Amino acid sequence: MKLNWNDIDTVLLDMDGTLLDRHFDDHFWLEHVPKRYAAKHRLSLDEAKSFLYSHFRSQENTLNWTDLDYWTEQLGLDIPLLKQEVDHLIAVHPFVVEFLLYLKRHNKQIYLVTNAHSKTLALKLNKTRIGPYFTGIISAHELGLPKEDVAFWTALHNRIPYRPERTLLGEDSETNLSTAQCYGIKYLIYVSRFSSTVKPEASGSYTSIHYFSQLIPPEGELEVTLT
Predict the structure, then answer these.
(1) Which of 6, 47, 106, 164 has the smallest number of Cβ neighbours within 10 A?
(2) Does 3 have pLDDT greater than 80?
(3) Domains in the chain, CATH or no CATH each
């Protein structure tokens, strides 16, 4: 795939796993929450994990999946407070800032488009300080639809001006890339190194990158070749 930045006006970027290391989220939901839940309900860690993992899976591809208020009510735990206990794990992936600076230098419209809940957004943007790089920040919770729903992209188009045929989307979710493709977004990039603790695997359906440095052309050029 050849990517020429002259052909792109707008860049939509996911947050967790795409710009930020998903190790934080995986550790939080798969280890930290079960540990706290087990302690509260006097369960073994394995019992807590079995119950919670099943409950988590039941809400996949819905807004509840990332709704901190929903999980606070369901689990009887202060989820935003628990996130602060492990917020030292929140980290920006390598080369993300360099990529955002490249986009700003070339006058691209840059939007952070995420399923993350507003309380998660506030915590992570405060921790990482990447907010000022974006033209705008949109949470799926504002639109009432998750990115897994094709209708999300129509709702997004009603919120921000972008031409799908001149838009690039960076995501660590093949499902979300698929719904965006159905809507007509042309340039679809799968971020395979979504976690620093998981071995990256390229997508079988979409152009894949490990790092955003792969999208930055050599000095003085506007085109990159991706495999």
Answers:
(1) 6
(2) yes
(3) 2-21+90-225 (3.40.50.1000), 24-88 (no CATH)
User: Rounded to an integer, what distance in angstroms lies between the CA atom of residue 157 and that of residue 120?
Assistant: 23
**Residues facing residue 190 across a β-bridge:** 171, 208
pLDDT bucket at 227, cuts 50 / 70 / 90:
confident
Q: Report d(CA 138, CA 82) in Å as an integer.
A: 24
174 in Cβ contact with 202 (< 8 Å): no
Whether residue 2 contacts residue 225, with contact meaning beta carbons closer than 8 Å, is answered with yes
- Cα gap 29→180, rounded to integer Å: 27
Measure the CA dihedral 53/138/8/213, to 10°.
Answer: -50
Q: 29 by DSSP, 3-state: which?
A: helix
The DSSP string of 60-97 is TTSGGGG-HHHHHHHHTS-HHHHHHHTGGG--BPTTHH
Single out the residue of 199, 191, 217, 194 nearest to residue 98, CA to CA: 217
Q: What is the pLDDT, as a whole number, of residue 146? A: 97
| Type of residue found at 172 | D
